[in-house]
Amino acid sequence: MNVLLIVILVLVIILIVPFITISNKFNRLIVKIDEADSDIDVALIKRHDTLTKMLDVVKGYAKHEKETLVEIINVRKGMSSQEKTEAIKSLDESAQKINVLAESYPELKSSENYNTLQKSIADTEEHLQAARRMYNANVSAFNQYLVSFPASVIGGMKGLSKKEFLEAEEEKKEDVKMDL
Amino acid sequence: MEELENLRKAYVRHIVIGMIIVVVIGIGATIAFNNPQIIIFALIFGITIVILTGSSKKKKLADNYKKQIVTTTMQELFTDVGFDYDKGYPSSIISETGMMRMGNTYRSNDWYSGKYNDVSFSCSDVYIAEVTHDSDGDTDTTVYFSGQWYVFTFNKSFKGAFQVCEKGFNYSKHGGLFDKSIQKVELEDVNFNKEFNVYSTDAHSVFYVLTPHIIESIRKINEAIPGRLLFCFMGNLLHIGVYNGKDNFQPKVFKSMNLEDEKQKVRKEIEPITKFIDELRLDNSIFN
């Protein structure tokens, strides 16, 4: 009886210890992904705010121009990967439009305020790229772990599925450069 | 150059004549006392005396070499050159990075500084070791670091600090600036992860600073520069350690000197500075 109890106990330990270890690793990876996701939110909001300020400055120089109707998409925390990708694209387009608009006003381009904002935009873009790369690196680690054995079995038991990457546009994979 | 060559010849003469005298005395003593063990004692004792008596000549040669060759070559390549060959970094400069164990023996000399493409830098030879003595009186030396330590101004400011250590460097220490919240960061570049370990207090800063370009540059530098590389990004400074077991700017004693060859040798020794600045684009702001 005692021997049977010991065998059962050993078997339980053999099964439970890897389960806890693997489960904890999944939890750690998920926390890392969530942190990176939150970093993207912060970077997106900062980029949005800087672009809004920039647009205000441009509008100050071009009060009577119709072309100042540049729209800046609203961003919020907790957007899905798809929504984030779209928001990034939309903010990039807005930044381009503002730059084109500013081209018509040489005094604006040489103003200190405008240049400071340009630098700030370049910096927020770098932070956004960093957050995106960190998110994708963590998603990659998670997805790889999820398909490896025996983590795949425990991942299945926990109902985990592969996470989506945040796609980057080809040109954005290069380091940020801004011509001022 | 002629003065330098004369100093070299004087030192070589001292060594050669000293050795001949040591050997002659050793053989003479062995024959006189009819004891072959005497020659071993005579050689060890004699060589020590020759080296000690020649040390002032060697130092004079090394000092003149640094003044005439090293300084001139550096002034040709860099601006705002400063040097103090007898001094080095205080140990706190390195211990504050928290990059490695500091042992109980620290030496640093051949300090110099300057600017290249408007980027300020400084460099010094550094030796860090743990010397222990056991109960039998045997001495054991574990060298933690021996090579050059560089400090550059860095063109990005970020939160926290992080280290990039080439794998195989076994004396990393995560303390000092690096508290318990330090984490190992895996980047998206699999090959980079195979070559380097990255430790940080803030993973976002790692991805912010180590852009794909910087990652590629560090790998290129690693291929081009012999020795193990250590990087510490801290505040607006970048510390780089090159663990190659070498002491820079030492004249070759038993080979006649040629100005161009010597300058070329020095250029090769200070090449890492230009490589770091050029490859890591330390001279570039992200805003051109």
Describe the structure.
The complex is a heterodimer of chains A (180) and B (288). Chain A is mostly helical. Chain A has one domain (30-173): LemA-like domain (de novo design (two linked rop proteins)). Helix content of chain A is 73%, strand content 0%. Chain A has 5 helices and no strands. Chain A has helices at 2-61, 81-103, 106-110, 112-147, 151-157. In chain A, helix 1 packs antiparallel against helix 4 (112-147). Chain A is rod-shaped, with a radius of gyration of 24 Å. Helix content of chain B is 43%, strand content 26%. Chain B is globular. Chain B folds into 2 domains: 1-77; 80-279, no CATH class. A 9-stranded antiparallel sheet of chain B has the order 1-2-3-4-9-8-5-7-6. The model of chain B has no long low-confidence stretch (mean pLDDT 85). The longest helix of chain B is centred in the first third of the chain and has 41 residues, at 37-77. Chain B has helices at 2-33, 37-77, 91-95, 190-195, 203-209, 212-224, 259-279; strands at 79-84, 105-116, 119-133, 139-153, 161-166, 183-184, 196-200, 228-234, 237-243. Chain B is of the alpha+beta class. In chain B, a hairpin with a 2-residue loop joins strand 2 and strand 3 (119-133). The A-B interface holds A 32, 35-36, 39, 118-119, 122-123, 126-127, 129-131, 133-134, 136-137, 140-141, 173-180 and B 186-188, 203-204, 206-208, 211-213, 286-288.
